[in-house]
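As a next step, the fold was encoded as tokens, giving this record:
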Amino acid sequence: MDMVQSMIQQLGKMQWSDYLDIILVAFLIYKLLPMIRSTGTSRIAKVVVAILILSWVTELVKLHTMNFLLDQLLAVGLIAIVVLFQPELRRMLDHLGNMKLQKLFGVQHSGQELDPVISQTVTACEVMSRERIGALIVFQRDSRLDEYMKTGTDIDAQVSEQLIRNIFFPKASLHDGAMIIRQGRVAAAGCVLPLSESKRLSADLGTRHRAGVGMSEVSDAVVIIVSEETGAISVAVGGMLKRHLAPQTLERLLRNELCSDEEVKEENLVLLLRQKLQKKGKEDSGDAKK
């Protein structure tokens, strides 16, 4: 009871700037937490949190020598972290620097212009899957991919099934690289992507799949992989690989990842109404025959 009264008194002493400070810190933590989902940045976070917890525990149980060593480690720990985790820190800072202010403050643009892009891409992937043609398609979101586009050939063309299939045709000069789609257009093709070093990936996955997962680890891009050996369609998002997707599942996944929540809900509602109308039409036709 005394603790509650003490908290109430403390809250009464707080000024508006204190409340604003708390809200801003909570907002930044909420927005920055998704950045540590990847393997590299999560390692940094785990190390820092572990050292802080150990320092607090040793101080609590009065392990003075151990606490002194941890305090010294924290004093020079930033330099050690920069040296040990240089690649991960660079990727995290690149991701932070490439974030759009609209995304940071939760503002999203309409994704209706992506409807034909998604439809054409899914149709092309379905055909290439059936014909066992390998493909690697990257959808850029908020993280800019300029450094990877420089490794390929600039195209800047409208997305179409024919263009995608022609680029990944086995005898085409750009078929071995990745295609990058930016703002609803094919921005570049024949691009070289970073390979994932994750040990969680299956040993039977080749370079194309590791490049797709690697791209999703260093950015927020959505990557489609079509296997040349099996024809299986996979999607990599946030370092996670979803394999053996049907074309309908691929289209639904792309819409969920690339379109806003409101648009996805509207599309799902339209699809549900269409299914009900089709079901009602079949029932009416069945009654008419009777």
